[in-house]
């Protein structure tokens, strides 16, 4: 077992973190034999934590709050201002209950129905457009999931000439936010554009105009009331609506990793004959592949927990990628082995691709059932396709956020199964 919080030598680690965002924390901690290291990120005092035991401290300590935790650059792009990610305590639990209601239970069936219907449309489109090299999978999945998200939430499609811009803007939020300077600026503009458009729809819906479908998530968010009985400010309601639309489109990243895993581990296809096997495969893709590097909080009042000391005002980053590979919890964590999920249910602090703890109480993602259901649907369909990539050219760009295969994966044979 590793103890305590070590000290990084570098005065600031922003560049080192950016150079290896998924592995920086685990490597720095391993080098010192600790569960955390203290240093600076974006010039601010920061504690970097890794591993399941540290994850428990991160989620269960009442001194670790979210309201001024995320950097402004992320609020302006990926996250948005005033949304559930930035709330604490009772206000957070109340808002979170809305998301859990919208994203679990019967909602999963409704999502799958929308996704199945749109897959058929995407498949036909892909079939017509099949070229020698096939269709680029990542943009194809973005398109499928954009159409699915809008239909499921009951948001009207923008006019045909604005649709591609709208889809592109949604992708920018998660795919360009942490890229080059021009990409980041595009993501900022995309958020402004999307919030303005959705804000107008929300105001119309509140004026009883039938913009959103009556039984959809969009209308529920537009009409949601905080504990004080008031509706959300229009801009915040738009942020929360984007909080369900954007991540559905972002599941395209995980679907890309499913295809990567199918190519590299052909023997794992045998698992896809049963529902439990498909689930095990999807869970191992979520555990193994890089997507969301870290979660962020800020210390309000110095404290000690489980041998870790935190100073007032520090930022805390929890390593999500490395924690899902914690060698104290996982056998051979760096091997892709879906069968590990056939034996045991994952722990709430050791399996954290979408955050840890309890989704109702903590900031753990409320969309895990959605992500798993969409990935399971996609992996069943993709298992019968052919792919351009040779298995010796499947290296991963770990510097990109989110990480992706260096070579674009293209698939052929998405047409109707005979
Ligand atoms: C929160 C990852 C899919 C909605 C989070 C967090 C992570 C995450 C890491 C933050 C955990 C924390 O701060 O402690 C992912 C990944 C996904 C995904 C990798 C795959 C695409 C979804 C889906 C939805 C969704 C499909 C909804 C349709 C949310 C919301 C939050 C959240 C609303 C904020 C929760 C809170 O602050 O309490 N997600 N997520 N996510 N996710 Fe997801």
UniProtKB/TrEMBL annotation:
Cofactor(s) annotated in UniProt: heme
Entry annotated with the keyword Oxidoreductase: yes
Keywords: Heme, Iron, Metal-binding, Monooxygenase, Oxidoreductase
Coiled coil: none
Residues that coordinate or bind heme: 365
Domain of life: Bacteria
GO molecular function: heme binding; iron ion binding; monooxygenase activity; oxidoreductase activity, acting on paired donors, with incorporation or reduction of molecular oxygen
GO biological process: sterol metabolic process
Family: Belongs to the cytochrome P450 family.
Name this polypeptide is given: Fatty-acid peroxygenase
Range of the intact protein held here: 49 to 466 of 557
């Amino acid at each position: 077992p590793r103890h305590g919080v070590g000290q990084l030598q570098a005065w600031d680690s922003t560049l080192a973190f950016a150079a290896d965002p998924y592995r920086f924390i685990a490597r720095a901690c391993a080098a010192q034999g600790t569960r955390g290291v203290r240093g600076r990120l974006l010039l601010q005092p920061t504690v970097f934590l890794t591993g399941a035991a540290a994850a428990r401290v991160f989620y269960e300590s009442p001194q670790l709050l979210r309201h001024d935790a995320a950097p402004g650059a992320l609020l302006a792009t990926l996250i948005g201002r005033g949304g559930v990610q930035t709330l604490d305590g009772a206000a957070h639990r109340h808002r979170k209950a809305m998301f859990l209601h919208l994203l679990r239970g019967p909602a999963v069936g409704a999502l799958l129905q929308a996704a199945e219907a749109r897959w058929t449309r995407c498949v036909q489109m892909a079939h017509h457009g099949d070229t020698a090299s096939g269709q680029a999978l990542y943009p194809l999945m973005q398109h499928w999931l954009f159409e699915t998200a809008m239909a499921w939430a009951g948001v009207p499609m923008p006019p045909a000439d604005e649709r591609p811009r709208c889809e592109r803007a949604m992708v920018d939020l998660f795919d360009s936010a942490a890229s080059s300077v021009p990409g980041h600026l595009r993501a900022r503009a995309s958020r402004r554009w999307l919030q303005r458009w959705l804000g107008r729809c929300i105001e119309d819906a509140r004026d009883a105009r039938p913009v959103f479908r009556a039984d959809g998530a969009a209308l529920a968010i537009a009409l949601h009331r905080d504990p004080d009985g008031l509706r959300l400010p229009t801009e915040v309601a738009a942020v929360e609506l984007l909080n369900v639309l954007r991540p559905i489109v972002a599941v395209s990243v995980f679907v890309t990793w499913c295809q990567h895993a199918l190519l590299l581990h052909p023997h794992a296809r045998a698992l896809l004959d049963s529902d439990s096997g498909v689930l095990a495969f999807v869970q191992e893709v979520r555990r193994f592949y890089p997507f969301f590097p870290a979660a962020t909080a800020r210390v309000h009042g110095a404290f000690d927990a489980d041998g870790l000391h935190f100073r007032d005002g520090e930022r805390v980053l929890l390593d999500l990628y490395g924690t899902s590979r914690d060698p104290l919890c996982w056998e051979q964590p760096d091997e892709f082995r879906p069968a590990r999920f056939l034996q045991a249910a994952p722990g709430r602090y050791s399996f954290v691709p979408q955050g840890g703890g309890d989704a109702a109480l903590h900031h753990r993602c409320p969309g895990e059932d959605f992500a798993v259901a969409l990935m399971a649907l996609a992996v069943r369909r993709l298992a019968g396709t052919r792919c351009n990539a040779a298995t010796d050219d499947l290296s991963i760009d770990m510097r990109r956020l989110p990480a992706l295969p260096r070579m674009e994966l293209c698939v052929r044979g998405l047409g109707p199964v005979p």
